Protein 1
Amino acid sequence: MDILNASMADSLWIGLIVGLASLVQSLTGFGFALVAVSLLPFFMDLQLAVTLVIAVGLIGNVVLWWYYRENFEWSRIIHLSVAALVTIPVGVMGLHYVPEHLALQALGVLVLVYVGYSWLQLSLPELTGRPWAYAFGAASGVLTGAFNIGGPPIVIYGNCNQWSPEQFKGNLPGVFCVLSLVAIATHIWQGDFSAALLTQVEYAAPFFVAGLGLGIWLSKYIDAANFRQIVLVLLGAIGLKLLI
């Protein structure tokens, strides 16, 4: 669906999905892009959904990076970021040339792989050294450019290097800020940003903020670990739907 032809009902659903994804992010620490990009294609074109999520998600990443800036360590993400910067344009341009039904099926597979990885809580080997950082960073760049779900490779890399929770909170938003800025610049170069899309970003931003605030409030009453399992079940169902 072209965003120019989106009805008010579709715009409301788009805003609610962004709010839901933001709520999931604030309660569990993950999942904004995964939830948003998985659900938005039911109401808008995949390429537009990815661009919208990148623009809105940048706001959250900047806020999180500033809040956890004392735990940010540039030395831990520099090689990841350099590799990702090189491969982001590959993902962006690939989304232009791959048929949307194939891209949606690929997205479904990626979502299911992430759900399986998170659910099984696999014991991962220690992977140190720059080659591994470049490899995981490159994978994150491609996924960021194509679907804005570059988080899983970075999370796996951090787990392999035994990052502490504080290091995750400080370093992940920093990586995503860099990647989002480059992805946005590439999408602008590709002509993906239009006045209509920016209007939709403005419309969705309050839902994003509301989701963050609601998640912070609910975190006092809801167990984040149990809610995370519910989200994984939801993502698994969405992933299967995308494959059909």
Protein 2
Amino acid sequence: MKYRGRVLMTLIGIIFILIWDIVYYIEMNLKMDVLLNIIFSCILLIVLYWTGGYLDKKTEKIASYKDSKDEMKMINEEMQHVLQSIEEVVFHTDAKGCFQFLNRSWADFSGYSVKESLHKNALHFISLHERHEVLRMIRQHIDQGKPKFKMDFSYQKRDGTQRWGEMNIKLSYDQAGRLVGPWEPFQT
């Protein structure tokens, strides 16, 4: 109900006025000043009606926030579904290169589970002789201010087999221009 707060506060005001009148004028047997009583009642009802309007607006905002939260949850679930359905590896690292997110394709790609790989440095999963080249290229692109680049690299799967992959890197920066961490999809 759109006006629930106004109706509720007005009813509370009417009940308060009735109880006040009963106690003050009937039980205490005091003389009633009708004009003063009407003015007091009107002022009280206007204030309570205004307060009820304030409550109605707050209730609408809360409902809107709840709807937004539900919508964001639905969008997040859909995004997770899409990311987990992609056959290529999609991951996100922090500025130090540690995995913050990995999709399910990572296990097929590397032989390592997502759980055991999270929060570990991505360079540990690249062949030892390739690490320096990958790091050099990343630093070079950071220095040049290039946000995207692509490179080939070799890596060793958990079972010891050597494979080649292609990495598309997008460097992300915060408002102050500091590196936050790239989203990097791997392709094999």
Protein 3
Amino acid sequence: MNSNWFKLLMKATKVRYGKNLLLKGMPVIFNKSGAELIIGDNVTINSSFLSNLVGLYQRTIIVTRTPESRIHIGSNVGISGATIYARKSITIGENTLVGGNAKILDNDFHPLEIEARNADIKEKIGAKPITIGKNCFIGCNALILKGTILGDGCIVGAGAVVSGVFEDNCVIAGNPARVIKRF
């Protein structure tokens, strides 16, 4: 399936996207009925092995999982083999780059309590919105967890596990991630 056919499929599932959306390879983009998935102008989504030489393990996956969830991806954003999965809300500011194999997850995927997890009670899955500012760079294999807020101009180091609120213009690295530099 070429990208033009895939764009028709995206429109059919009410994914809204701006001008010059470039799909390299075939991403997995799923918009739950009632949810909102908006992709800005001049966005590039890399989903093929050779589209990013950092080495992609998978195609890009962008999913709104519940009818009340929303994903907003700003203009001039680049995404490579990443997973962006929302039960509540994920916002990615303009001019942001999401590195190879990064994961941006606003939820726990499963309830934390044993009884709720064993009974697969979806309402007990913890979720908090994620906001990533403008002009950020998320390094390869980074993990951005629920409730995270990254200010404008943040850089997230490769492999960082990020949770919390971070000010503008800082470098965040490690597990757990912390500010290692301000500029």
